[in-house]
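note to self — DONT lose this again. spent like an hour looking for the file last time. sequence + predicted structure for the chain T wanted, 457 res
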Amino acid sequence: MKLHNSYTNQIEEFKPIEENKVKMYVCGPTVYDNAHLGHARCYITWDVLYRYLKFKGYDVTYCRNVTDVDDKILKKAENEGKTPEEVSQYWYKKFSESMKALNNLKPDIEPFATKTIGEMISINKDLIDKGFAYESNGDVYFRVKKFPKYGYLSKQPIDQLESGARIEVGEQKEDPLDFALWKKDEKFGYKSPWGIGRPGWHIECSAMSRKHLGKTIDIHAGGADLIFPHHENEIAQSECANGCKFVNYWLHNGFVTINKEKMSKSLGNFLTIDDLLKNYDANTIRFFILTNHYRMPVEFSDEALQAAANGVKRMLNAKRTPIDENLDLTQFEEYKEFVDAMDDDLNTSRALAVLFELTNKANKDVPYAYTLLHKLAEILGFTFEKAKLSDEELKEKLKFISDELGETYSSMEEIIEKRKLARAEKNWDIADKIRIALDKSGIVLKDSKEGTVWELK
């Protein structure tokens, strides 16, 4: 298996530190707002890597942190008259629901920054003791020039970084390049040897990664926007504190763009996952993301999502046969093609092409095709189950349909019966109105010899 290592800018053979074991860390969300399509791309990408590594037989420990102490959280708490904990807990719950809705597996470990403060203080003390950091009026800063490899990940020479470096109001640094490991904060802070304060963002990931995975890990992944300064700073502080290499393989996914601009909250051009899921199901969003190579930017448009929806429909509508759990998948050429594609730096677009090949074969009654399609699609996180509605969602759908038709219905069966009667009486006007109302609410009816059933689009 080969992966593109951002640190060396080379595609390299993947060799874990311990045979058959993989320690993988992904930078998680800062929980203060809704997750958007950019987050969906990041976490679906690394969900697929996690699934594929497990499929390859590795014992994977996947750690994805939660940043629940941050300037944005504190600002939101102040604006809303809430505690930072109330804000972060609410948005963490929303984030978790979004991830579940996208069919992302839960990480093995999901540490919170606020539960790792002791480890952050410990790393800061080590860095000060070794001369890599210093205290200044309650703040602690990292001495960037003490780490000669600084800028290597982002491929930015130190003199280039120096020209853009600034000292903000209130900062007391030895050098404009130095970054904060600890910030004085007497209102929302924690006790430390340097007074009441809170951690800088970068030290959080170093501490959580070291605590749960060890000093050197196999894979560290995240969005390309984190390369500088976040991941650059993580490398500097971790390697100086621990005295050893921090990460063997750095992996980064490309941006999601709208009108060629990166999707982000600061630009206000983001689409939330919740809003997307009103119009497109999880399989469609996943398909849209995986059609593109994970390192490339992906341009969002309704046309692209619609094309993805059509692709998913084609795959899920393959002629179904019972799954043969005892089938030796490795004997088939399509299996080898799929594995070759995924081993080639997660070439998911090639892997999807294999799934379409199997879809065609399933429709032509090739005996093994549907079992192989189902098993390989699962590795990419697709689900073949029909979507289900909660009781609350069903009530909402029934109210919408009732309003559209001008009479009250308490169950889908009542609506189906009404349509059946209208058709029997050749009252096509009423039958059409029912069909249109159902269609608007995202429900389709399927007629067969056994009767009529309803399901979500």
